Amino acid sequence: MPLTLYKKKRSFKETPEPTGGKAGGAKLRFVIQKHDASHLHYDFRLEMDGVLKSWAVPKGPSTDPTVKRLAMMVEDHPYDYRNFEGIIPKGQYGGGTVILWDEGYYEPLETATGKKEQEKILLKQLKTGSLKFRLYGEKLQGEFALVHLKGKQENAWLLIKHRDEFAATTDITKKDKSVRSGKTVKQVEKAPENIYGQTKRPAAKKTASKTVLQKKAAPAATLKKAPAVKPAVKKKVH
Ligand code: MN
What is the pLDDT of residues 45-64, one digit of tens each? Predict the structure, then answer.
Protein backbone atom coordinates (compact mmCIF):
# COMPACT_ATOMS: atom_id res chain seq x y z
CA MET A 1 0.00 0.00 0.00
CA PRO A 2 1.64 3.26 -1.02
CA LEU A 3 1.28 6.43 1.01
CA THR A 4 -1.26 7.82 -1.45
CA LEU A 5 -4.16 6.57 0.65
CA TYR A 6 -2.64 8.02 3.82
CA LYS A 7 -2.21 11.38 2.15
CA LYS A 8 -5.69 11.31 0.67
CA LYS A 9 -7.31 10.86 4.05
CA ARG A 10 -5.60 13.82 5.62
CA SER A 11 -5.57 17.54 5.09
CA PHE A 12 -2.06 18.54 5.98
CA LYS A 13 -2.90 22.20 6.12
CA GLU A 14 -5.01 21.49 9.17
CA THR A 15 -3.27 18.63 10.96
CA PRO A 16 0.29 18.68 12.20
CA GLU A 17 0.94 15.05 11.31
CA PRO A 18 4.06 13.94 9.51
CA THR A 19 3.90 13.55 5.75
CA GLY A 20 6.99 11.51 4.99
CA GLY A 21 10.46 10.86 6.30
CA LYS A 22 13.30 8.57 5.32
CA ALA A 23 13.98 5.28 7.02
CA GLY A 24 17.72 5.54 7.48
CA GLY A 25 18.53 3.58 10.63
CA ALA A 26 20.58 0.39 10.77
CA LYS A 27 17.75 -1.45 12.54
CA LEU A 28 14.08 -1.83 11.74
CA ARG A 29 11.88 0.16 14.06
CA PHE A 30 8.47 -0.49 15.48
CA VAL A 31 6.09 1.75 17.33
CA ILE A 32 2.76 1.30 19.06
CA GLN A 33 0.63 4.39 19.40
CA LYS A 34 -2.29 4.39 21.79
CA HIS A 35 -4.96 6.32 19.97
CA ASP A 36 -8.02 7.64 21.73
CA ALA A 37 -10.20 8.41 18.70
CA SER A 38 -13.88 7.61 18.15
CA HIS A 39 -12.89 4.17 19.49
CA LEU A 40 -9.81 3.61 21.61
CA HIS A 41 -7.27 1.41 19.85
CA TYR A 42 -3.56 0.75 19.57
CA ASP A 43 -1.79 1.37 16.26
CA PHE A 44 0.84 -1.28 15.78
CA ARG A 45 3.40 -0.14 13.21
CA LEU A 46 6.36 -1.98 11.72
CA GLU A 47 8.98 -0.30 9.58
CA MET A 48 9.17 -2.06 6.25
CA ASP A 49 10.20 -0.85 2.84
CA GLY A 50 10.68 2.73 4.06
CA VAL A 51 7.19 3.13 5.51
CA LEU A 52 5.28 1.93 8.56
CA LYS A 53 3.07 -1.08 7.88
CA SER A 54 0.14 -0.52 10.21
CA TRP A 55 -2.53 -2.45 12.09
CA ALA A 56 -5.20 -1.06 14.39
CA VAL A 57 -5.53 -3.31 17.43
CA PRO A 58 -8.79 -2.45 19.26
CA LYS A 59 -7.90 -4.21 22.53
CA GLY A 60 -4.19 -3.55 22.37
CA PRO A 61 -1.40 -6.13 22.45
CA SER A 62 -1.34 -9.01 24.93
CA THR A 63 1.70 -10.77 26.36
CA ASP A 64 -0.41 -13.87 27.02
CA PRO A 65 0.18 -16.52 24.31
CA THR A 66 -3.36 -17.88 24.77
CA VAL A 67 -4.86 -14.50 23.85
CA LYS A 68 -5.27 -13.60 20.19
CA ARG A 69 -5.84 -9.95 19.47
CA LEU A 70 -7.66 -8.76 16.37
CA ALA A 71 -5.49 -6.44 14.32
CA MET A 72 -7.05 -4.63 11.38
CA MET A 73 -4.52 -3.74 8.72
CA VAL A 74 -4.78 -0.10 7.76
CA GLU A 75 -2.96 2.08 5.25
CA ASP A 76 0.81 2.51 5.40
CA HIS A 77 1.97 5.45 7.44
CA PRO A 78 5.04 7.64 6.78
CA TYR A 79 8.22 6.68 8.60
CA ASP A 80 8.17 9.95 10.56
CA TYR A 81 4.80 9.10 12.02
CA ARG A 82 6.62 6.99 14.62
CA ASN A 83 7.44 10.24 16.43
CA PHE A 84 3.91 11.54 16.58
CA GLU A 85 2.43 12.10 20.00
CA GLY A 86 -0.22 14.71 20.44
CA ILE A 87 -3.62 15.72 19.33
CA ILE A 88 -5.28 15.27 15.96
CA PRO A 89 -8.02 17.89 15.73
CA LYS A 90 -11.61 16.70 15.88
CA GLY A 91 -13.20 16.41 12.48
CA GLN A 92 -9.88 15.32 10.97
CA TYR A 93 -9.21 11.71 10.02
CA GLY A 94 -8.29 9.88 13.23
CA GLY A 95 -9.22 12.90 15.35
CA GLY A 96 -8.28 12.34 18.99
CA THR A 97 -5.24 11.93 21.21
CA VAL A 98 -2.16 9.85 20.43
CA ILE A 99 0.61 8.73 22.79
CA LEU A 100 3.72 6.70 22.03
CA TRP A 101 2.77 3.67 24.06
CA ASP A 102 5.80 1.61 23.04
CA GLU A 103 8.68 1.75 20.61
CA GLY A 104 11.94 0.07 19.78
CA TYR A 105 13.47 -2.26 17.24
CA TYR A 106 12.30 -5.51 15.72
CA GLU A 107 13.66 -8.28 13.55
CA PRO A 108 12.29 -11.34 11.76
CA LEU A 109 12.72 -14.66 13.57
CA GLU A 110 14.27 -16.05 10.44
CA THR A 111 18.02 -15.42 10.50
CA ALA A 112 19.17 -12.59 8.27
CA THR A 113 22.30 -10.55 7.84
CA GLY A 114 21.56 -6.87 7.74
CA LYS A 115 18.48 -4.71 7.41
CA LYS A 116 17.99 -5.25 3.69
CA GLU A 117 17.76 -8.99 4.09
CA GLN A 118 15.50 -8.65 7.12
CA GLU A 119 13.11 -6.50 5.11
CA LYS A 120 13.15 -8.95 2.25
CA ILE A 121 12.07 -11.75 4.58
CA LEU A 122 9.41 -9.61 6.25
CA LEU A 123 7.92 -8.38 2.98
CA LYS A 124 7.65 -11.98 1.79
CA GLN A 125 5.96 -12.97 5.06
CA LEU A 126 3.62 -10.00 4.78
CA LYS A 127 2.53 -11.24 1.35
CA THR A 128 1.90 -14.75 2.59
CA GLY A 129 0.01 -13.41 5.61
CA SER A 130 2.25 -14.73 8.39
CA LEU A 131 4.75 -12.39 10.03
CA LYS A 132 7.01 -13.76 12.73
CA PHE A 133 9.25 -11.34 14.54
CA ARG A 134 11.01 -10.41 17.76
CA LEU A 135 10.34 -7.07 19.45
CA TYR A 136 12.85 -5.08 21.43
CA GLY A 137 10.58 -2.48 22.98
CA GLU A 138 10.22 -0.92 26.38
CA LYS A 139 6.93 -2.64 27.16
CA LEU A 140 6.88 -5.46 24.62
CA GLN A 141 9.73 -7.90 24.17
CA GLY A 142 10.22 -11.26 22.61
CA GLU A 143 8.51 -13.18 19.87
CA PHE A 144 5.22 -12.24 18.27
CA ALA A 145 3.27 -13.27 15.20
CA LEU A 146 0.84 -11.40 12.99
CA VAL A 147 -1.34 -13.82 11.09
CA HIS A 148 -3.74 -12.90 8.32
CA LEU A 149 -7.25 -14.24 8.85
CA LYS A 150 -8.33 -15.69 5.56
CA GLY A 151 -11.86 -15.75 4.29
CA LYS A 152 -13.31 -13.12 6.61
CA GLN A 153 -12.64 -9.44 6.28
CA GLU A 154 -9.86 -8.70 3.84
CA ASN A 155 -7.76 -6.75 6.35
CA ALA A 156 -8.28 -8.82 9.50
CA TRP A 157 -5.15 -10.20 11.18
CA LEU A 158 -4.38 -11.64 14.61
CA LEU A 159 -1.58 -10.44 16.86
CA ILE A 160 -0.28 -13.32 18.97
CA LYS A 161 2.50 -13.56 21.54
CA HIS A 162 4.73 -16.60 21.20
CA ARG A 163 5.71 -18.63 24.25
CA ASP A 164 9.06 -17.40 25.50
CA GLU A 165 10.62 -15.88 28.62
CA PHE A 166 8.71 -12.62 28.01
CA ALA A 167 5.26 -14.21 27.92
CA ALA A 168 3.09 -13.17 30.87
CA THR A 169 -0.57 -13.19 31.83
CA THR A 170 -0.53 -9.71 33.36
CA ASP A 171 -2.39 -7.06 31.37
CA ILE A 172 0.35 -5.04 29.68
CA THR A 173 -2.13 -2.30 28.67
CA LYS A 174 -2.38 -1.38 32.37
CA LYS A 175 0.94 0.29 31.74
CA ASP A 176 -0.71 3.29 30.19
CA LYS A 177 2.03 5.88 29.96
CA SER A 178 3.92 7.15 26.95
CA VAL A 179 7.45 5.77 26.64
CA ARG A 180 8.61 9.21 25.44
CA SER A 181 6.86 11.72 27.68
CA GLY A 182 5.74 9.53 30.56
CA LYS A 183 2.23 10.94 30.08
CA THR A 184 -1.10 9.16 29.84
CA VAL A 185 -3.58 9.89 27.05
CA LYS A 186 -5.56 12.08 29.46
CA GLN A 187 -2.47 14.07 30.42
CA VAL A 188 -1.54 14.73 26.80
CA GLU A 189 -5.11 15.72 26.09
CA LYS A 190 -5.06 18.21 28.96
CA ALA A 191 -1.72 19.70 27.96
CA PRO A 192 -2.19 20.98 24.43
CA GLU A 193 1.22 22.65 24.49
CA ASN A 194 2.61 19.19 23.77
CA ILE A 195 1.15 19.03 20.31
CA TYR A 196 3.58 17.76 17.72
CA GLY A 197 2.50 20.46 15.28
CA GLN A 198 3.54 23.30 17.52
CA THR A 199 7.20 22.61 16.90
CA LYS A 200 6.39 22.66 13.20
CA ARG A 201 4.83 26.11 13.29
CA PRO A 202 6.85 28.69 11.43
CA ALA A 203 9.75 29.21 13.83
CA ALA A 204 10.48 32.68 12.46
CA LYS A 205 7.06 34.00 13.42
CA LYS A 206 7.23 32.53 16.90
CA THR A 207 10.68 33.95 17.61
CA ALA A 208 9.73 37.27 16.11
CA SER A 209 6.73 37.86 18.35
CA LYS A 210 8.71 36.78 21.39
CA THR A 211 11.59 39.07 20.54
CA VAL A 212 9.28 41.98 20.01
CA LEU A 213 7.69 41.43 23.39
CA GLN A 214 10.99 41.21 25.17
CA LYS A 215 12.88 43.98 23.44
CA LYS A 216 10.32 46.69 23.08
CA ALA A 217 8.97 46.61 26.62
CA ALA A 218 5.63 45.66 25.11
CA PRO A 219 3.85 48.75 23.87
CA ALA A 220 0.06 48.48 23.61
CA ALA A 221 0.14 47.52 19.95
CA THR A 222 2.46 44.59 20.55
CA LEU A 223 0.42 43.32 23.45
CA LYS A 224 -2.67 43.33 21.30
CA LYS A 225 -0.90 41.40 18.61
CA ALA A 226 0.57 38.73 20.82
CA PRO A 227 -2.64 37.13 22.17
CA ALA A 228 -3.95 36.92 18.63
CA VAL A 229 -1.53 34.07 18.00
CA LYS A 230 -2.86 31.92 20.81
CA PRO A 231 -6.52 31.42 19.85
CA ALA A 232 -5.39 30.22 16.43
CA VAL A 233 -3.37 27.48 18.09
CA LYS A 234 -6.16 26.50 20.46
CA LYS A 235 -8.49 26.16 17.51
CA LYS A 236 -6.12 23.64 15.99
CA VAL A 237 -6.09 21.65 19.21
CA HIS A 238 -9.80 21.02 19.05
MN1 MN B 1 -5.29 5.10 14.88
Answer: 999 999 999 999 999 999 99
| Closest to 124 measured CA to CA, from 112, 137, 134, 141 | 112
Q: Where are the domains of the chain?
A: 4-192, 201-237
CA of 176 to the centre of ligand 1 (A): 16
Cα 37 to ligand 1 centroid, rounded to whole Å: 7
CA of 209 to the centre of ligand 1 (A): 35
Closest CA to 163 of 44, 66, 61, 32: 66
Confidence class of residue 226 from pLDDT cuts 50, 70 and 90? very low
Q: How far is the CA of 126 from the centre of ligand 1 (A)?
A: 20
Ligand 1 centroid to residue 38 C-alpha, Å: 10
Confirm whether pTM is higher than 0.90.
no
Whether the predicted pLDDT of 200 surpasses 80:
no
Contacts of 90 (CB under 8 A, 6+ apart): 96, 238
The residues, any chain, with a CB within 8 Å of residue 189's CB and separated by 6 or more, are 36, 87, 97
Report CA(12)–ligand 1 centroid distance (Å). 16
For the chain, the maximum distance between any two Cα atoms, rounded to a whole number of angstroms, is 69
